[in-house]
Automatic annotation (TrEMBL):
Phylogenetic placement of the source organism: Eukaryota, Metazoa, Ecdysozoa, Arthropoda, Hexapoda
Name of the featured protein: Aldehyde dehydrogenase
InterPro entries the record matches: Ald_DH/histidinol_DH, Ald_DH_C, Ald_DH_CS_CYS, Ald_DH_CS_GLU, Ald_DH_N, Aldehyde_DH_dom, Aldehyde_DH_NAD(P)
Domain of life: Eukaryota
Pfam families: Aldedh
GO biological process, one term: aldehyde metabolic process
Gene Ontology, cellular component aspect: cytoplasm
Record family assignment: Belongs to the aldehyde dehydrogenase family.
Family annotation (PROSITE patterns): ALDEHYDE_DEHYDR_CYS, ALDEHYDE_DEHYDR_GLU
Residue positions of the active site: 251, 285
Annotated ranges, domain Aldehyde dehydrogenase: 47-436
GO molecular function: aldehyde dehydrogenase (NAD+) activity
Length: 443
């Protein structure tokens, strides 16, 4: 039956110890109103997937009324737990309240309101144009759910990147298994303790754990997989999915370049680029990764950036309540090594504190294509500038590398904007701003 707050207000969390999993699994999996399982192996994962599949096969997720009720319950969860969601993000990333609300909580609320508003139109049968052969026939396209969907979340936006695809999967009439990131512990705990109180726990199930649990899940057959994260794990997810010809949505990262020419208002440009780069301490897949511009624009940008960063974070960014921290020691060490390898290129920042997992907002100047910082996605608050002579050299530089997730172009000249539009290829192209395109609804 669909969940209600009354039905699941007393839902417990079952935690299964790996050592005793085999002897407890049968009694645990059959208990009502438990939808989160922890510390288990292949046998257990197959049981939880079978539970979701039985729910889907029963037909309970297909009626529009069920979908709408789950979505409304999910919206109510967001609205009733704003503070708890913000607190979880503070614990995981020391995320400021403004960033937590803007980039996760309100983003989720606005998205699900849009989903509820459009639900009837999205699920309605479509009557396509008919040719001469079918002129007297009824031709109808029905939008059927896939079945059992696996959503593997990410630590950098641990609520948004798990719950956003959940809403879409529910709206499409699927049963869903969620795997929160183990690195964002507070957010995962929030999900485990809160979600069962609002949604149908037979149709939406949570699996806690780390790489071992994710690996075991990927051995199961799913009907669709959503994964957000790094390219290396993305390849593993994709390879696992191909064994069952399972369709996959991969939201990966990459080195997203920024081109700046000499026609822009450098103060406005610096604010928009630095905001996009340093929200969440640069731990954003669509953050600007590096800048391409002439040396004269580089000098102007660095001067403007010093003022902008002082305005954003004060004289000592480490004391600012608006600057996040790095998620864990491993990622901190990786970023520290990048700064240490570029000591002679530091134009702004370059400071770090291992105990606080703090990396100061850092700008590197006169970076070359062969520098270590240019080898992989940075995913942190370090912004290198690579000097180029003009837009044509910038386009050549971009096209010699993997297609970026996002390309940012800052120029008031329409011919330069057209040049990048026509002669480059990227997941998205944003002109004279950063990040904000993510809020566009493209159907």
């Amino acid at each position: 039956m669909p969940a209600s707050s009354e039905q699941h207000a007393a839902s417990d969390v079952i935690v299964i110890d790996i050592e005793s999993a085999n002897e407890n699994i049968d009694t645990t999996i059959n208990m009502d109103n438990h939808n989160t399982m922890n510390g288990n192996g292949y046998y257990f994962c197959s049981q939880i997937v079978n539970k979701a599949r039985d729910t889907f096969d029963s037909g309970v997720t297909k009626p529009i009324e069920w979908r709408r009720k789950q979505l409304k319950n999910l919206l109510r969860m967001y609205e009733e737990n704003r503070n708890a969601m913000v607190d979880a993000l503070v614990k995981d990333l020391r995320r400021s309240k403004m960033e937590a609300i803007l980039l996760e909580v309100d983003y989720l609320i606005n998205d699900i309101r849009n989903t509820i508003y459009n639900l009837d139109d999205w699920v309605a049968p479509v009557k396509p144009p008919k040719g001469l052969v079918n002129m007297l026939d009824d031709v109808v396209i029905y939008n059927d759910p896939y079945g059992v969907v696996l959503i593997i979340g990410a630590w950098n936006y641990p609520l948004q990147l798990l719950l956003l695809p959940l809403a879409g999967a529910i709206a499409a009439g699927n049963a869903v298994i969620l795997k929160p990131s183990e690195l964002a512990e507070a957010s995962a705990k929030f999900m485990v303790e809160t979600l069962p109180k609002y949604v149908d726990s037979d149709a939406v199930l949570l699996v806690e754990g780390g790489p071992e649990e994710t690996s075991e899940l990927l051995k199961q057959r799913f009907d669709y997989i959503f994964y957000t994260g790094g390219t290396s794990v993305g390849r593993i997810v994709y390879a696992a999915a191909t064994k069952n010809l399972t369709p996959v949505t991969l939201e990966l990262g990459g080195k997203s370049p920024v081109y700046i020419d000499n026609t822009v208002d450098i103060e406005v440009t610096a604010k928009r680029i630095l905001w996009g780069k340093f929200i969440n301490a640069g731990q954003t897949c669509i953050a600007p990764d590096y800048i391409l511009c002439s040396r004269s624009v580089q000098d102007k940008f660095v001067d403007a950036a010093k003022n902008v960063l002082r305005e954003f974070y004060g004289e000592d960014p480490q004391k600012s309540p608006d600057l996040c921290r790095i998620i864990n020691n491993r990622h901190f060490s990786r970023l520290q090594a990048l700064i240490d390898a570029s000591k002679d290129k530091v134009a702004i920042g370059g400071r770090y504190d291992a105990q606080d997992k703090y990396i100061s907002p850092t700008v590197l100047a006169n970076v070359s294509a062969n520098d270590v910082i240019m080898k992989d996605e940075i995913f942190g608050p370090i912004l290198p500038i690579v000097p180029v002579e003009n837009a044509y050299e910038a386009i050549k530089f971009i096209n010699e590398r993997e297609h970026p997730l996002v390309l940012y172009v800052f120029s008031v000249q329409s011919n330069i904007q057209q040049l990048f539009t026509q002669q480059t290829r990227s997941g998205s192209l944003c002109v004279n701003d950063t990040i904000m395109f993510y809020g566009a609804k493209v159907l």
